[in-house]
Recover the amino acids of this structure.
């Protein structure tokens, strides 16, 4: 999960890009970067850290130009601590191109080998975003006629990217002297939306990961970028669009609605806030039918993402809703912190219990999901320490049992609390007296009710069904071995590459 933004304006865009990245900060706290275009010249500044820390006045003054792209990073692949992994990335052949990417490629190693052996291109980092940039650059060479880069040729190059790259990707890029390009993978797994605004000098355009950024910058939402579609705004400010994938299908990531996106965003025609309200209704119905024996005195959300679900659950069951935890706004989201020890330490720093809301009560804690269980376990203990008689726990999402390979940091089954455990065992692990999970069909229905045209979703972290069709058990074993440093990771690089190639070939078949 990362946040991306691109703007083509008639006035300097440095402040707009900065403000947009602030709004998207929840999508990545590890690094931030901005590139602006002044004619044929790019100006770049990027570094590790939050947006407010990365960019100083002197940096902003150097970001000249009326077009630009920005990125906030949450690492899912590559070296999380290296500033060299910060985006956007740049290449200078066949044109000056900068690119920022949200998502995760699943055939990165195969692409790296092809780039080196066949395309004669070198990748400097372990980031799949740099791989994606070099694939785009090579496809721009393949379309020919480098003296004149037409709109049709750009869209043809994006089609080449779609044929070669697998996984999830939403992309913003700029081609020096030409314009801004944005495109979305053929399954539409990661979100991308476009907005515009009319000014005295003409139309201005913006693309971003979430609609909330478009709203905050006083643009008007036009529509979501369709799966496989490319959007191109040329040097004259004219917008062009074309479907570039052979067989696009809508499979948006359902975890965007559960946790990743801000509640005031609208993704693929679905209000995130309304979806979370409906998740609460679905949970209430399940409790009413299957857990009516629970004697619940009060419903308490675990801030912030679960508030709408908890409120609607309480209303539907006629229960009291209370704020039992106060959140420290200066601690980052624990879900996207890089280490387990750091996550555990941050929970107590992030939340503090209000004792009067717990003492002598049977409390139902509501959270958006349970991933590793670190946060849940600490919070249940905090409720008990505050004097709760019984602590029940409800998750607005189903059990997370499978790795996510499309840009969310859930890559190993060993790290997922629900893998290989029953609901009762999970309840014991987090110390709860009872545990209620959302059903996956109920979760899908909560989203689909708002936009019935969305028939399918990527729900791979819940059911292990990977929509791109190229994820084999061997592939999952391999990425887990590399992440965990097990004996499998001691295989020679040739053997690792062979495994990756076989997994990719199986998906293509």
């Amino acid at each position: 999960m990362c946040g991306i933004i691109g703007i083509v304006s008639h006035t300097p865009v440095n402040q707009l890009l900065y403000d947009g990245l602030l709004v998207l900060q929840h999508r990545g706290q590890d690094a931030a970067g901005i590139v602006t275009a002044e004619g044929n010249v790019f100006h770049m500044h990027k570094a590790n850290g939050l947006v407010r820390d990365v960019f100083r006045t002197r940096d902003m003054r150097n970001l000249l130009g009326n077009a630009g792209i920005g990125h906030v990073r949450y690492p899912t692949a590559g070296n999380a601590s290296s500033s060299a992994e910060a985006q956007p990335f740049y290449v200078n052949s066949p044109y000056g191109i900068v690119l920022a990417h949200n998502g995760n490629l699943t055939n990165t190693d195969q692409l790296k080998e092809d780039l080196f052996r066949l395309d004669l291109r070198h990748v400097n980092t372990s980031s799949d975003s740099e791989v994606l940039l070099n694939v785009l650059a090579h496809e721009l060479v393949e379309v020919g006629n480098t003296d004149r880069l037409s709109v049709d040729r750009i869209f043809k190059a994006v089609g080449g990217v779609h044929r070669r790259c697998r996984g999830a990707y939403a992309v913003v890029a700029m081609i020096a002297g030409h314009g801004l390009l944005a495109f979305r993978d053929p399954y539409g797994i990661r979100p991308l939306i476009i907005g515009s605004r009319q000014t005295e000098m003409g139309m201005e355009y913006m693309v971003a990961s979430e609609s909330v950024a478009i709203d905050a910058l006083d643009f008007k939402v036009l529509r979501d970028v369709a799966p496989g579609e490319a959007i191109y705004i040329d040097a004259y400010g004219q917008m062009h669009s074309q479907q570039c994938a052979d067989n696009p299908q809508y499979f948006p990531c359902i975890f965007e609605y559960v946790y990743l996106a801000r509640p005031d965003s609208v993704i693929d025609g679905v209000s995130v806030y309304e979806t979370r309200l409906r998740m609460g209704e679905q949970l209430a119905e399940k409790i009413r039918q299957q857990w009516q024996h629970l004697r619940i005195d009060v419903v308490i959300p675990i801030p912030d993402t679960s508030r709408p679900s908890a409120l609607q659950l309480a209303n539907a069951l006629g229960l009291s809703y209370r704020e039992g935890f106060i959140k420290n706004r200066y601690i980052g989201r624990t879900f996207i912190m890089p280490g387990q020890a750091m996550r555990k330490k941050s929970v107590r720093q992030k939340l503090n219990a209000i004792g009067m809301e717990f003492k002598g009560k049977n409390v139902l804690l509501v959270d958006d999901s349970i991933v590793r269980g670190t946060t849940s376990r600490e919070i249940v203990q905090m409720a008990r320490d505050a004097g709760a008689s019984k602590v029940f726990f409800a998750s607005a999402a189903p059990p997370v049992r499978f790795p996510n390979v499309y840009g969310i940091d859930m890559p190993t089954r060993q790290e997922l609390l629900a893998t290989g455990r029953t609901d009762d065992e999970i309840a014991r692990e987090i110390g709860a007296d009872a545990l209620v999970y959302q059903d996956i069909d109920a979760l899908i229905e909560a989203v689909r009710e708002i936009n019935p045209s969305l028939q399918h979703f990527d729900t791979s972290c819940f059911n292990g069904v990977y929509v791109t069709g190229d994820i084999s058990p061997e592939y999952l074993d391999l990425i887990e071995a590399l992440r965990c440093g097990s004996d499998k990771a001691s295989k020679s690089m040739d053997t690792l590459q062979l495994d990756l190639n076989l997994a990719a070939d199986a998906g293509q078949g």
